[in-house]
């Protein structure tokens, strides 16, 4: 038998459950609109755009390496990747953030072909999204930190054309 008190408690519980559901739905919508493009593993188009950006940068480094117009190091690689080599004298945008690439230039030795840090924080406008080892000319584009380590490594391997077995691996 239901009493006015149990009906009121049941109504209050239902209202709290409905409010919780609305909060979860709103948070989900905010997260979806704030980070809609960070699901790299689910989009081949995004991976292809990242590969295209990486190819464009690698191509410009190779062209300028032999142009006699840029300063090169003892190994024959440009000292830096210059925005002047690209359209509108700007580095290409990272396909997942639409912000201009920020290059981490390093002298990491001949054996290091991939960065130790393979990811970047897409919410950080100053995040280094491209890695350049000017000792051997290796260039890698970083992927956003999403999913598990295995998913992140699979995304990094896919866009950089490599087959690393570990997030700590840096050699070919």
Question: How does this model look, in words?
Answer:
The protein has helices at residues 4-34, 44-65, 149-160; strands at residues 103-106, 119-120, 130-133, 138-141, 143-144. With 172 residues, it is mainly alpha-helical. It is elongated and about 90 Å long.
Our Rg estimate from Cα atoms comes to 23 Å
Outline: elongated
Total strand count, please?
A: 5
Low-confidence residue ranges: 20-42
N-to-C span: 74 Å
How much β-strand is present in the residues?
5-15%
* Helix percentage: 25-40%
**Helix/strand order:** HHEEEEEH
Note the main attributes of this structure:
172 residues; two-stranded parallel sheet; three-stranded mixed β-sheet
Helix-strand blueprint:
Layout (H helix, E strand, L loop, with lengths): L3 H31 L9 H22 L37 E4 L12 E2 L9 E4 L4 E4 L1 E2 L4 H12 L12
Parallel strand pairs: 1-3, 2-5
Antiparallel strand pairs: 3-4
Helix pairs in contact: 2-3
